[in-house]
Specification:
Bound molecules: 6-phosphogluconic acid
Radius of gyration: 17 Å
Shape: globular
Helix content: 25-40%
Strand order of the largest sheet: 1-9-8-5-2-3
Order of helices and strands: EHEHHEEHHEEEHEHE
Number of helices: 7
Distance between the termini: 10 Å
Largest sheet: 6 strands, parallel
Number of strands: 9
Length: 253
């Protein structure tokens, strides 16, 4: 089902509500394959920024199986991250570890095709280093730092990546990566910023479960104070934005 959205939504903007998590994963995998195919027709590489948290697991699990395993030209894909917890790469809370176990290892993705955020380092140094990594990876790209595809999750408080309500990185106007202190977790996180996200060619939100219902409805129906929710400010300047929700998360749409 395609949700009815306010007129002032971005030009290429859509929200689809799928019956369950499996069909959401299938839809996301199909979108990944389609975006990769379109991009690799004209460009040498397809650069994708992965989402953290738990929901992407179902997408990764879908991508490593038929038909996507053989249909996608994995060798021409470069993997980046939208955010990371400040933990070592083998820590159970590491977004890199989740992606390594559910995607890179099953597909035998070469390590030099993966650009992880170094959560084990001092956060500001790690953010600066990742900004340099991104700059050098996009150095030969005519359009500068512009991810071909970005996956994003949604938190119950309306956060996305590690852009949480009331935190400093929300105000970042220039740097593509920030170290962001999250008071409610008393921890630092590394996150791409709005300038990096909103320059992407294509962005896909994955939102599943009852606890995402309220923030999704507020943002997609522009209800009371929706702009305070960090995910509401994900608006591609000249790209496409797609929300994929399961029935629970999309119940009010
Ligand atoms: C993180 C994520 C975060 C996540 C949401 C949704 O590192 O935690 O990037 O933004 O996407 O919290 O998480 P779930 O998918 O686990 O519900």
């Amino acid at each position: 089902m395609t949700a009815n959205l306010p007129r002032e939504a971005p030009a290429r903007f859509e929200a689809r509500v799928l019956p369950d998590l499996d069909s959401l994963a299938e839809e996301a995998a199909r979108e990944f394959a389609r975006a990769a195919k379109e991009c690799l027709r004209d460009r040498a590489l397809f650069r994708v920024a992965l989402a953290g948290g738990s929901t992407p697991r179902v997408l990764h699990d879908r991508l490593v199986r038929k038909p996507y395993r053989s249909r996608i030209d994995w060798n021409r894909i470069r993997f980046f991250f939208g955010d990371e917890r400040c933990v070592p790469p083998d820590h159970e809370r590491s977004n890199y570890r989740m992606a390594r176990e559910t995607l890179f290892e099953p597909l035998r993705i070469p390590s030099d095709h993966v650009f992880r955020m170094r959560g084990e380092e001092e956060p500001h140094a790690a953010a600066a280093e990742y900004a340099r990594t991104i700059a050098s990876e996009f150095a030969r790209s005519r359009s500068g730092v512009r991810f071909d595809l970005v996956f994003l999750g949604l938190g119950p408080d309306g956060h996305t990546a590690s852009l949480f309500p009331g935190t400093k990185a929300l105000g970042e106007r220039n740097r593509p990566v920030a170290a962001n202190y999250i008071p409610k977790f008393r921890e630092w996180r590394l996150t791409l910023t709005y300038p990096a996200f909103n320059s992407a060619r294509r962005m896909i939100f994955l939102a599943a479960g009852e606890e995402k219902r309220e923030p999704a409805s507020r943002i997609l129906k522009r209800e009371r104070g929706y702009r305070e929710l960090p995910a509401a400010r994900i608006r591609p300047r000249c790209g496409a934005l797609l929300w994929l929700l399961d029935e629970e998360a999309g119940r009010d749409l």
